[in-house]
Amino acid sequence: MNASPADGTSAPAPGARPLASAWGMNASPSGLVDLLADGLSGLRIRPIGDAAWLGVSEAASAGLAAQARTERGEAWPQPLVSHYSRYFRDGNRTAYEGLVGVRQQRLSRAVAMALLAGRDGGIGAEGGGGAGHRSASIGGADAVDWLNEVVDGVFLLCEQSSWSWAAHDDVFSRSGEVVPDKSRPYLDLGAGEVAAQLAWTDFVLGGSLDARAPGLRRRIRQETQERVIIPFLERMDWHWLGLDGDVHNWNPWIHTNLIAAALFLVDDLQLQAATVARCIEGLDRFLASLPADGAIDEGFAYWWNGAGRALEGLALLEEATAGALSADLPVVRQLVAFPHRMHVGGNWFLNVADGPARAASGLPWDMLHRWALRLDDRDAAGHAATFLSGQPDATAGLGRVLQTLLRGTEERGTETREAEEGGPAPLVPFTYLPSVQIMVAREAAGTDQGLLLAAKGGHNGEHHNHRDVGSLVVAVDGVPLLVDAGQPTYTAKTFSPDRYEIRAMQSAWHSVPAPFGLEQGTGKDFAADVLQAPTPDNPTLKLALGAAYGLRPEQWIRTSSLDRKARRVTVADRWDLPDVPDRATPDVDITYIAAGTVHLGEVGSATVLPDGIPTAGNGRGVRLRWEPGAAVVLVDEWLLDDPLLFEAWGARLTRLRFRLPEEHCPAGTFTLKLEATP
């Protein structure tokens, strides 16, 4: 199995634009006018009444339908200014975002139900197409009820004063006000999501919307133009454009949603082409910013709303242009491989930065699966296939719901079926991504049984950064036991100057050293140097960590390795420190964060068992051994009251601080050996 890029892979040349190079004038406004002039008949998603919807089984829509029937007829969630303003008053962003999310999820379910109710031609069987087309009929009572539900949900979004999330809106910083300013809409992730949802709704239900509520489609277009299209085309100061070189996951997430909005809601072909061309430029900046190994410094969880969104946008562009804009590019191939390279076991994945350790529900694995099959990456295809549920999840967004519903209707050849039914995930034995200095090595290929070691270098200027240079994760039988806490619930503090007051972001609560009790610094200069890169046969990552603490790099060396033959992970720290800096302590600690139940045994040993970790069962644990007397072990419990952290780890995390004797403070060594319990 191909586990990692070949040694010596280099990043793209600065300024290289892969899409511009591949597509040339086809990606220009004039080229797109020609490519888009024939309409959207090549899209995989089809309008209501299309025969494709006849193949959607009741089983595929069962979960979605059950919830939709429960909520139909109930009052719609109503986000209020008191919810919006909470972010500016007390930092709470979930009060507003939660209500907005529930509202949009309900609308997505209603659209799906209206589509399925219209399969017999009763609800606007000819409803797709442009804004001026109207269906001749509405259909039976159930079909009408679902269309009423859609109409109400769409109108509520059109009436919603702001499509942006309060946490992103600049109204308060500009004016000190906490009420959205409709005259100056803020184009953020939330606004892009609403625009795309309305776009997909309009495309699949088409004239049936106007047949039930004449003028609604005109209103959709008006609101989208004023809130999204015009601000996008007229302003070049959006930070997520990446014009300053800082390109992050907002870029592909918003640009892909704007592609859908332009294709389905902009009827003027010249304006449509200009908008899509601008989106292509944005996606090109994102792809050009990526390293050749396809690594995402925000990790697996953010891959889906960054790289994954880019892949969705590229697929939509290809379908909309009848294949003229095809993105079979080297960097795309590496992006497709990233998720399975980060797989620990079960639904556990290596989490770095603001990422949870378990895969969220509703991820569009079918999108990744289609790309993997297309690129003939059997490892990526087999991995994605193991997570395919066939059940759409409205939390993923309407576009993704529609894609999942239609997945089961497609004809598949023998090779495709074999890839889908190919058994367990590939669980590759080794990955090393030099651009982010991440190694993942497991005891044996093809199984999560035994030890897995993930070790990270990198720097503290990464996107969604935690101070985690030099950290590691150790799993046994696919369950992480020495862990990275991951993402707590976002608040105003999360992305403020006080970010590193949050415990989960501090190096003091990662599995890293603390020379003189120092916290790691923030920024790209606080980084690791790779002294020895790992190889498949020798998974050993040797890092100089001193610079992460403002010291000279060589003043702290950490070597993390997996010995497959001995079935042992070894973490060896060596230091040669200067005099104690100001505002520091004379102590030298080495910290490890454990999930589950920790037992200190005889001197020089401890065990961590997976008891209490959600979904982990009561399997084997990990035994830690060190030279007796080499350190005093200090134990701190972190009782988890944050819902996201509790969902991942249960009631607590435990910090083990190995405090070295004073005679080892100027210079010394400490080695920790880890083995699976019997």
Condensed summary:
By secondary structure, this protein is α+β, with helices and mostly antiparallel strands. Helices cover 35% and strands 17% of the residues.
List keywords for this structure.
about 675 residues; 8-stranded antiparallel beta sheet; 5-stranded antiparallel beta sheet; 21 strands; about 35% helix; elongated
What would your notes on this structure say?
The radius of gyration is 26 Å and the shape is elongated. Helices cover 35% and strands 17% of the residues. The strands form five sheets. The protein has an eight-stranded antiparallel beta sheet with strand order 11-12-13-14-21-18-17-16, with no helix packed on it. With 678 residues, it is α+β, with helices and mostly antiparallel strands. The relative contact order is 0.09. Mean pLDDT is 91; it is low at 1-14, 124-128 and 130-139.
